[in-house]
Amino acid sequence: MEHSHVVRGNEEQQLPTTSGGDVLRRRRGFSVKNYVKKRLPILKWLPAYRPRTDWLPDTISGISVGLTAVPQSIAYADVAGLTPEYGLYSSFVSCFVYIFLGSCRQMTIGPTALMELLVFETCGEAFPQCVILVGFYSGCFQLLMGLLKLGAVVSLISDPVTIGFVGGASLTICSSQIRSFLGLTGAKGDGFLDSIIKAFENIKSAKLGDSLLGLGCVIFLLVCKNLKDYVPKEVPPLVGKLLWFLSLSRNALVVIIATGIAASLSDPPFALTGKVKSGFPPVGPPQFTLPGGNNSTSGGTLTFWETWQELGTAPLTIAVISILQNVAIAKAFGSGQSIDATQEMIALGASHIIASFFSSLPTAGSFTRSAVNEASGVRSPFGGIATAALVLFALSFLTEWFQYIPKASLAAVILCAVLPMIEYESLWPMWKVSKLDVLTAIITFLGSLWLGMEYGLVIGVGVSLALYLVRPVRPRMEWRIVKGRSSSVDRLLSQQAPVLASSQKQYHLIKPEQGFCFPSVDAIRTKINKVALSHPEVEVIVLDCQNMIGLDYTSASALACLVKALKQTGKSLVFVHTTHLPSWKGIMSTVGLKEPECYDNFEELESKQFLD
Question: Which residue ranges does the record annotate as region Disordered (predicted)?
């Protein structure tokens, strides 16, 4: 390779050139190799992969996750209003993509109850073209956000909003499963209220077979879930491992048992899933113009813009919520790993876009399956290959048996997966910390139930941000009258002025719990004026700046005016703990206060104030 000389200032640098003489430009501080390695995490963990010690744990973990993923995928396809094979299509493609782009080894990507509920609210029943297109556009949004390094966007969704939203989603999902759980006839409800109303209207059509099977499956799942926690210490290790495996594979076991019962009966007394299409999914791009019926202006097919109007905000909502799920799972299980929200955006975006060519539903990280992965001792994302292989095996050879899966058993799987997502136990600690956060969670929860998931999320984020902006308007302030004598000052006073030492000069101490910015100017100014008027005998007012992180023009001007106004009444406004604000004196000088009285600590304040 040739080299070219470039002169910068007094330095001459040699840059490599291609054989054609073009200089290979390299941005200072930017390395293509490091960027590629950062955005392809497989390049980090694969060279350190040890097949002899890592392959077996990864394979066992992948199979364990697969035993959970297959029944859940079939069940979640029903939540999305589609036939079971679409859920299975979604499970294997995402696993493959995340191996290359994922940053958390425990993470498993696939269909989730929340994603499929959101897409069902947009597309309705039996509309696969719409579902696939929503997934594609969600991936485009996620990939764009990742490339623009907008990982911090998820910080706008606070924990109270997430708790309220997930709680509302969980109850909405549960309400949608009442029909299958009890074997009700009639139309499927749209949303929480509609599902509850339709369930009550059709309650007389409930079937004993479906109800008993659903209840039995729930009991079986709950018992197996807690089985590993109640294993006596004296049992042989082999028995303990067996019980542990039964607990992890409980979803697959309950579906297998229920399917075996249905297949053995000539006339099962409960509703079955029906025939499932077998084999590899059709490969091709999503359909960008959807059939629209009466909503179309172009002969039964929506135009591109009409399709966008039909989808509304669903792709963006699903994009944000799936990112939020992934980041939350990565933080929960990714101890000791480098978790990058931007990388998760890129991984999910690429996964959605690629999977849409394989008729996939929208996907996200699954708490349940990631927990199984962690409990199984996964060593690397390589475990996703075993999960994908098991799903492909089921698609190729087991679909003939899927038609015998009772719908009540799938409803039981969904109920047991989503009910633990309701974090009601978080409300009491939240109440003790901040009652406004509880209000945010409740508003988000009710909005998600009554108005729909998208509106609930938007309302929750809006309320959360509004309360965040309102809090500085009425900041909490600590105020008390302090007698200006610390032990060190006492000694100093006794040595220099025994008469003065016997007196106890007082000062007001005001300490805002938050910083001082323009929304809080009026509240803090009012507080200072109020204490000055109510205690005319106290001449010194101290503003503790420990919680300040900076000043804006409005707050700096207000402080300068206060100092001047109080000086005219014979009082002093002084500042303590300003050393962490290096530009403090410069800012105050700019707004007209040339020499503000500032002290590093209270001892310096008391010694100078009371000895001068």
Answer: 1-22
